[in-house]
Amino acid sequence: MKRVIEIIAVSIQGLDGPGILEGRSAHAGRSARRSDVTVGMLVGAVLLSAASSATGDVFKYVDNDGNVYFSDEPLPGKHLKLEWKRTSKRLVSENKQQSQKLRRQQDAVRERIEARLSAGTDLYGMRPANPVTGSVSLRRARYGHLIDDAARRHGVSSDLLHAVIRTESAYVSNARSTAGACGLMQLMPETAQRFKVRDIWDPEDNIHGGAAYLRFLLDLFDNDLSLALAGYNAGENAVIKYGYQIPPYPETENYVRRVLRHLSAERLARN
């Protein structure tokens, strides 16, 4: 039975470009979001079908609208252009290589963080000792211009940033959680490194890092705000693990409700 996957996107990481925004199985008629995935994960259904066929080939086509199709058989139609034809064995090998490369990159990031800490650059030791004074409203006003700037730069609403900061730290710039999250937007050191935050305790850097992470999550989950917030709290892999649903963690479920409640209040206050 022919298996076809249609990709509404531009390219595939490791083959043609930076990644895939959305995938749809034309055979199953059900949509599934993907980001930064390797070829083997995305076209797994095609590979399984191809592996059991006589040729074991996988075909990639692009139509006139830029939609991408994978199939284990040649597809008819003048609107389709054959991009490449590869064996399923080769795609599996490329997928393995790409996964190993990603794992090496992640290990390198961890090693850099550990090296900095062992060399005496203690991120937690750099935490400002000065007490934070003033009411929540005064602290909110103090960082308003930084939040507006980050919102414009990263394409997220300032109301959303306020809601997240209010939930995460109540505008306390030197807040630190028991898990080790830091600053206004409670960034973990690994997340700060990932989004090129120079000083995790600097309010401006911290806000920009958190805004960049929110933008990434919104793109990853097709602007589904609840999933983006769940990813901010529990990590995007947890959302993916539970089938692109809010993970069944009481903390995460409560976190999403609180941020949305604060967001609603921000919007009402603005009107």
Describe the protein.
This protein is an alpha+beta fold. The protein has a six-stranded antiparallel β-sheet with strand order 3-2-1-5-4-6. The chain contains eleven helices and six strands. Helix 2 (44-51) packs across helix 3 (88-118). A hairpin with a 5-residue loop joins strand 4 and strand 5 (68-71). It has helices spanning 39-42, 44-51, 88-118, 136-142, 144-154, 158-168, 189-194, 203-220, 225-234, 236-241, 250-270, and strands at 4-7, 22-25, 30-33, 57-62, 68-71, 81-87. The chain folds into two domains: 4-96, no CATH class; 123-270, Lysozyme (Orthogonal Bundle). It starts with a strand and ends with a helix.
Order the strands across the largest sheet as they lie in space.
3-2-1-5-4-6
Global mean pLDDT: 77
Rg (CA only): 22 Å
Straight-line N-to-C gap? 56 Å
In CATH, the architecture of the largest domain is Orthogonal Bundle
CATH topology of the largest domain: Lysozyme
Order of SSEs: EEEHHEEEHHHHHHHHH
State the name of the first-level CATH class of the largest domain: Mainly Alpha
Tell me roughly what share of residues is in helical segments.
40-55%
Structural class: alpha+beta
Q: Which blocks of ≥5 consecutive residues have pLDDT under 50? A: 5-42
* Number of self-contained structural domains: 2
Based on CA inertia axes, which overall geometry fits?
elongated
Describe the main β-sheet briefly.
Answer: 6 strands, antiparallel
State which percent range the strand residues make up. Answer: 5-15%
State the total count of DSSP E strands.
6
State the helix count: 11
